Amino acid sequence: MENCCYKRGWRWKDRTTVEDMDLAVRAGLKGWKFVYLGDLQVKSELPSTFKAFRFQQHRWSCGPANLFRKMVMDIATNKKVSLYKKFYVIYSFFFVRKLIAHMFTFFFYCVVLPLSILVPEVDVPKWGAIYIPCIITTLNSVGTPRSFHLLFYWVLFENVMSFHRTKATFIGLLEAKRVNEWVVTEKLGDTLKNKSHSKSAAPRKSLTKFFGDRIQLQELGFALFLFICGCYDFLYGKNNYFIYLFLQVITFTIAGFGYIGTIVPSS
Fold this sequence. Notes:
Layout: H1 2-7, H2 19-29, H3 50-76, H4 83-118, H5 126-140, H6 151-174, H7 188-197, H8 207-214, H9 217-236, H10 242-256
Helix pairs in contact: 3-4, 3-6, 4-6, 4-9, 6-10, 9-10
Domain Glycosyltransferase 2-like: 10-127
Subcellular location: Golgi apparatus membrane
GO molecular function: mannan synthase activity
């Protein structure tokens, strides 16, 4: 798709860090139609470390939010596509999938639900907090049965990452300081290759640099907050939400100490 756009004289605009999405939306507004090939398989490398993954997720969440801010009026006033397609792109593609999805996961499961435990007058029904989300998550996992055993851990990890995606979404919408931050995602294969071809041992990191790369105070802060809410629910609650909260505390703590992903040796 990008090659076709380039051949027609379209270029990547430096207004965004998600150039592929920018080109796709612009092509759609010119009346192009896309075909989804479900049987096409390509290889993809994973980020080398959790830090690299966080930078990648920041760009993938901040970029679409900022692109939505810059293109929403172009989409609404476009005369080459139908009203239905405008509604789909603005509401379904951008607003729901790129904005609300991250915010809802974070605010509901990491803020509203824990805080509701501290306020006895607020009662979050189990069907809304547990049953419906579990059904939706299970249905989403049907397409990847080989990874079904990871579903439980994936939900907890996604709640942690929703915190970073929500921050990035607000940065993109408000065009804050890191809106155009572009950090090339270091892939695991490149990292291992560079390590194996290195002729001299890399200098040892200072203690400050080590803790700066590994220790994430924001995750640890949320772990403490959820732990307090979980203890309160264990002592005074009646819905047993502390089971989920303590599991989420463990996940936030693991992420806070950087024990996620592959640790690439320094020599």
